Protein: Sorbitol pts, eiic
Organism: Agrilactobacillus composti DSM 18527 = JCM 14202
Amino acid sequence: MQYITGFASWFMNLFQTGGKTFISWMSSIVPVVLLLLVLMNAIIAFLGEDRMNKLAHASSRNVVTRYLILPFLSAFMLGNPMCYTLARFLPEYYKPSYYAAQAQFCHTSNGIFPHINPGELFIWLGVAQGIQKLGLNTMDLAIRYMFVGLVMNFIGGWVTDFTTAYVCKSSGIKLSKEVKLTNKPAESDEKATA
């Protein structure tokens, strides 16, 4: 009977801990993500989708801006998972590669910029604890990890370009290399203005 009650206590404690974590997220992470979403939409509305399209088109022309600079800036400013939303402004052909570079960068920058991927901070903290026990500086490791990550993420994005080209060719699918966003109002909006 002692094992059953122990298991029941552990099981309930698991959900109580989950509830406490959820409440802590509601007062920390969730508002930040929502405000970042509002900020991004405000910037897009302020600049206009045409300018954002031009910026994305300019970024998509160059492999360095596409898989090195754009993922770094979007991860730093928007964090995970909001950083993926900038792919909206890239041509369809480059979206898989952007995602590959972006997904990796959210992990490799966590040591220096923990706000980028707070959900996986425990991984970095575990590594950092081992480094500290060895008497080494965790910031040195974090900087090296980020720089190696930037290079590898760039290579990963670029290699995905070749993979995308191969898959498109072998399947006969043609993805656009031009940004195509429609700015059409919803049907209900058209009726309301009529």
Observations:
- Confidence is low (pLDDT under 50) at residues 185-189.
- The longest helix spans residues 138-171.
